[in-house]
User: Which sequence fits this backbone?
C-alpha cells in the first residue's frame, strides 16, 4: 500500500462530491483525506484526494474517476513536484504558568494564536503532514482539548497550471449524437 | 430562434429534436405536465403496466436497433421502479435515457408525497444523471443525455425534472453544440497500439479471439469476420456477444464461461494470446481469475479505458471504438503477416479435435417427458436466425444461449451482467417495437415469467405480437440445480408448482394473448409452427418440461476453468488430448 495525492478538477455543479465519494465507496477504495474548494475559475472546483492503494489500483482509481462526466482532469501530484499543506486548528490548555513554553513551540513551527482565554489557546498552523504531526506531538504535553484538521491541499510546483493544459472547450455538434440507425 | 412554451413542451420538443420515435412509460403526479404535450407529439408513447417494464422495453428496443431507448416515469415509486432496468442497462452497456418527474423544487428534501432522491439512488449505475429545477436547462440536459448515453461505452442516463420546471414558461432553444469538458471518449486507437497488437498476433502460435458485447455495440461484426478469417484463430463469443460472429462459421467455438463449451473454455485456457475485443474478463468467463488463461498474453481492445487492466493485466491495451480498432488491425496484421507469422496448424488441429470430441449436448429424459433443450433447439430450427431471441435469467437463458443458432448481431437479448429475472417479456416487447417485421421469441422461465408477464397486456393492446415460450420446469431451475449439486438436493424454496398454478393458458387468454400448451416431444414442432403462424396477437406457449434437466458444461463458481465438468462428476478426458 502506498499513499498518493490526486488533484482532481471537477465541474462546479451540484452532486459532484456525492459522485466522487460514492465512486470511492462502491469500488472499495480508501480515502485518507479529501479537500474541496474553488479554483481561479468559478466553474471549476479542485478536489485534492489522498488515497492509500496498491499501484495497480491507483490506475483503476484514476480511470474510474475519469469516467465521471463532471470530472475534467486528474493529475497525481508527487511529493517532490508539488507543494502540499494541511490546516490545523488546535485548542490547548495554556495558563500563565506554561505560556512561555507554549510560545516557544509555536515559534518553532510558525504557528499563530487565533483565539485565547484564561485557560486555553487556539492555535492555527499550516504545513505538510509531517510538520503538523510534529507540532501536535510537541503540543501534547500542554494538553490538547480539541482539534480540527483539514484535508491536504496541494499544487504543482513551477509556473504551469493543470487547468491551462486540460481545459479544451471543444464543443460537440448535437446532430452527431442523434438517433442514427446502426449500419452493420 | 427561441419559442415561448412550458417546460413540459420544451421537454417533448427536445425529445423530438433528439430523434426519439418511441418511448415507454406511465404517467403520475409529478410527470403529469409532460404527458399533456406528449398527447399531441409525434413520438409514440407506449403505456406499460409497470415502470420496470418500461425500462426493460427501452433496453430491448435499444439492443435491437442500436438507438437510444427511452423510458419515462413519475417521481417516487415510479422512479424507483426504474432502478432495476437502469442497473441492468449499466451492466450491459445499453444506451438508455430515463425521464422522471420530481416533486416541485420547493418541496425537494422535505419527504414530500412521492418524493425519492432518484438522482442519488441511481448515481452508482447511471453513466450520468441530472436533476433539473429550472426549465431553461431542459433542452441542454436532454441533448447531453442522448449524447452521453449513445456515445463511447453506451449506458443509461437519467434526467429527473422537478414538476414546477415542467409547468413554468421558458424559451425553447435546442442546442446545436454541446460542451462537455469532462467527457471525450477515445474513438480512434493509437497507431502504436495497433502496431503492437498486430505484432503480437503475428508471433502467436495459439491465438484466440475473445469477443464480447462491445463488438455488437460498435456494429463491428463485418470487421470482426474479416479479421478473424485473416488470422484464422478460434473465435469465442461471450454471452453478450452471441450473434456477433456466425455460429455456423468453422472458426466459431461457441460461448466461454461457466456454461460455455469445452472447446471455448479450453481454447482460452490453453491460448498463448487472447485477442480480446469488447469483453471485460467477467468472473463468469474467467472462473477463478488467478487460474484463467495463465499462458496467454493479452491484447485488450475496448472503448472504456477503465476496463483495461481492471481484472486482467493487458500486455497491449487498445483504447478506441471497436469498429475503428478492428478496421485498423486488418491492414496492420496483413503487414505483419507479410513479414512472417507463427504456424497455427498444430493449435488448430488440437482445438478442432477437442471441439469435435465435446460438442454441446443433452440427455433425453428417460420418462418420455419434454426436454427443455430440445424445445429451444426446435424453436431455433423452425424460426431461423433472422428472428430475435430474448431470454430471462437462469437455466432457460443458458440453454437459449447454447441451443439457439445465432448468425446475426442484435438477435440475442438477455440480461448478462445484472442477471435480472423478469427481463424477457418486457425486453421482447421493446425489441418487437424496434423491429416490427421480425419474429421475436421470448424464451422465458416459469419463475421469470411470473415477475413481469403483465406487459403482455401492453403487447396485446398495442399490437406488439411477441411470442413467449415458457420453459416450465415448475422451479427456480438454476437455483435448484445448485441445490442439487452443492446443497445435497435440499430444495429450499425453489419449488414454484407452476404446472399446477397458475394456468398459463388461461392467464395468456385473460391478457388478450393466445395461450398454448405442450408437454409431449412429438407435439413440439406443430405447436411452434402454430405459434409462428399467429401474427396478430401475442402468443404464450407453456412448454411443460422435464424438471431435473441441468445446464452442462459447468465451471462451478469460484473454481478454475480447468475444472470444467461436462456432466455431473464428469470432466473431459484431458489425457487423451494433446494440447
Assistant:
Amino acid at each position: 500500500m502506498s499513499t498518493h495525492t490526486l488533484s482532481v478538477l471537477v465541474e462546479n455543479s451540484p452532486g459532484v462530491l456525492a459522485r466522487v465519494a460514492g465512486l470511492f465507496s462502491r469500488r472499495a477504495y480508501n480515502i485518507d483525506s479529501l479537500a474541496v474548494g474553488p479554483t481561479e475559475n468559478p466553474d471549476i472546483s479542485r478536489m485534492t484526494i489522498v488515497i492509500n492503494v496498491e499501484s495497480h489500483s491507483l490506475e483503476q482509481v484514476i480511470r474510474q474517476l475519469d469516467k465521471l462526466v463532471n470530472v475534467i482532469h486528474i493529475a497525481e501530484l508527487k511529493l517532490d513536484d508539488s507543494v502540499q499543506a494541511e490546516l490545523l486548528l488546535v485548542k490547548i490548555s495554556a495558563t500563565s504558568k506554561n505560556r512561555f513554553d507554549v510560545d516557544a513551540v509555536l515559534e518553532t513551527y510558525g504557528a499563530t494564536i487565533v483565539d485565547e482565554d484564561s485557560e486555553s489557546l487556539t492555535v492555527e498552523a499550516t504545513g505538510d503532514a509531517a510538520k503538523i504531526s510534529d507540532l501536535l506531538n510537541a503540543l501534547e504535553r500542554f494538553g490538547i482539548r480539541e482539534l480540527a484538521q483539514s484535508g491536504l491541499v496541494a499544487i504543482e510546483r513551477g509556473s504551469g497550471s493543470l487547468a491551462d493544459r486540460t481545459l479544451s472547450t471543444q464543443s460537440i455538434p448535437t446532430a452527431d449524437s442523434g438517433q442514427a440507425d446502426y449500419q452493420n | 430562434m427561441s419559442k415561448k412554451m412550458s417546460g413540459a413542451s420544451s421537454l417533448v420538443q427536445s425529445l423530438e429534436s433528439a430523434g426519439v420515435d418511441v418511448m415507454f412509460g406511465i404517467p403520475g403526479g409529478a410527470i403529469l405536465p409532460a404527458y399533456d404535450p406528449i398527447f399531441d407529439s409525434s413520438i409514440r408513447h407506449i403505456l406499460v403496466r409497470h415502470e420496470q417494464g418500461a425500462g426493460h422495453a427501452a433496453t430491448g428496443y435499444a439492443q435491437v436497433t442500436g438507438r437510444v431507448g427511452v423510458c419515462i416515469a413519475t417521481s417516487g415509486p415510479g422512479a424507483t421502479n426504474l432502478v432495476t432496468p437502469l442497473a441492468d442497462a449499466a451492466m450491459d452497456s445499453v444506451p438508455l435515457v430515463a425521464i422522471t418527474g420530481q416533486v416541485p423544487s420547493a418541496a425537494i428534501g422535505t419527504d414530500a408525497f412521492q418524493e425519492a432522491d432518484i438522482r442519488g439512488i441511481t448515481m452508482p449505475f447511471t453513466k450520468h444523471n441530472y436533476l433539473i429545477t429550472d426549465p431553461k436547462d431542459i433542452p441542454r440536459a436532454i441533448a447531453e443525455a442522448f449524447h452521453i448515453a449513445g456515445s463511447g461505452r453506451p449506458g443509461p442516463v437519467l434526467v429527473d425534472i422537478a414538476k414546477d420546471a415542467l409547468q413554468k414558461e421558458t424559451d425553447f432553444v435546442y442546442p446545436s453544440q454541446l460542451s462537455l469538458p469532462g467527457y471525450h471518449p477515445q474513438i480512434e486507437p493509437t497507431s502504436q497500439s495497433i502496431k503492437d497488437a498486430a505484432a503480437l498476433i503475428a508471433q502467436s502460435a495459439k491465438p484466440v479471439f475473445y469477443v464480447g458485447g462491445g463488438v455488437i455495440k460498435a456494429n463491428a461484426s463485418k470487421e470482426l469476420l474479416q479479421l478473424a478469417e485473416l488470422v484464422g484463430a478460434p473465435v469465442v463469443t461471450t454471452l453478450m456477444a452471441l450473434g456477433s460472429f456466425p455460429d455456423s462459421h468453422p472458426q466459431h467455438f461457441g460461448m466461454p464461461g461457466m456454461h460455455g463449451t469445452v472447446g471455448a473454455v479450453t481454447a482460452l485456457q490453453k491460448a498463448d494470446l487472447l485477442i480480446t475485443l469488447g469483453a471485460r474478463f467477467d468472473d463468469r468467463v474467467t472462473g477463478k481469475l488467478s487460474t484463467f488463461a495463465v499462458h496467454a498474453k493479452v491484447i485488450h481492445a475496448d472503448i472504456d479505458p477503465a476496463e483495461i487492466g481492471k481484472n486482467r493485466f493487458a500486455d497491449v491495451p487498445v483504447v478506441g471504438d471497436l469498429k475503428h480498432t478492428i478496421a485498423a488491425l486488418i491492414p496492420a496484421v496483413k503487414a505483419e503477416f507479410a513479414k512472417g507469422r507463427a504456424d497455427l496448424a498444430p493449435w488448430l488441429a488440437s482445438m478442432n479435435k477437442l471441439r469435435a470430441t465435446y460438442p454441446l449436448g443433452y440427455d433425453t429424459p428417460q420418462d418420455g417427458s419434454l426436454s427443455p433443450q430440445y424445445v429451444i433447439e426446435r424453436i431455433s430450427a423452425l424460426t431461423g436466425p433472422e428472428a430475435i431471441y430474448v431470454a430471462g435469467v437462469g437455466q432457460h437463458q443458458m440453454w437459449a444461449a447454447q441451443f439457439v443458432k445465432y448468425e446475426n448481431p442484435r438477435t440475442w437479448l438477455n440480461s448478462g451482467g445484472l442477471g435480472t429475472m423478469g427481463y424477457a417479456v418486457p425486453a421482447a416487447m421493446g425489441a418487437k417495437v424496434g423491429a416490427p417485421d421480425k419474429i421475436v421469441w421470448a424464451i422465458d422461465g416459469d419463475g421469470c415469467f411470473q415477475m413481469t408477464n403483465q406487459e403482455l397486456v401492453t403487447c396485446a393492446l398495442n399490437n406488439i405480437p411477441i411470442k413467449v415460450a415458457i420453459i416450465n420446469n415448475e422451479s427456480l431451475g438454476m437455483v435448484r440445480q445448485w441445490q442439487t449439486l452443492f446443497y445435497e438436493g435440499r430444495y429450499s424454496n425453489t419449488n414454484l408448482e407452476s404446472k399446477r398454478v397458475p394456468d398459463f393458458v388461461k392467464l395468456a387468454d385473460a391478457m388478450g394473448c393466445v395461450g398454448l400448451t405442450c408437454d409431449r416431444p412429438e407435439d413440439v414442432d406443430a405447436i411452434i409452427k402454430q405459434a409462428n403462424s399467429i401474427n396478430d396477437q401475442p402468443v404464450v406457449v407453456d412448454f411443460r418440461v422435464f424438471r431435473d434437466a441441468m445446464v452442462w458444461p459447468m465451471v462451478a463458481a469460484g473454481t478454475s476453468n480447468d475444472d470444467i465438468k461436462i456432466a455431473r462428476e464428469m470432466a473431459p478426458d484431458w489425457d487423451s488430448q494433446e494440447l
Notes: Chain B touches chain A at residues 17-21, 65-68, 119-120, 123-124, 127-128, 131, 143, 146-148, 150-151, 174-184, 219, 221-222, 304-306, 308-310, 409-410 (CB under 8 Å).
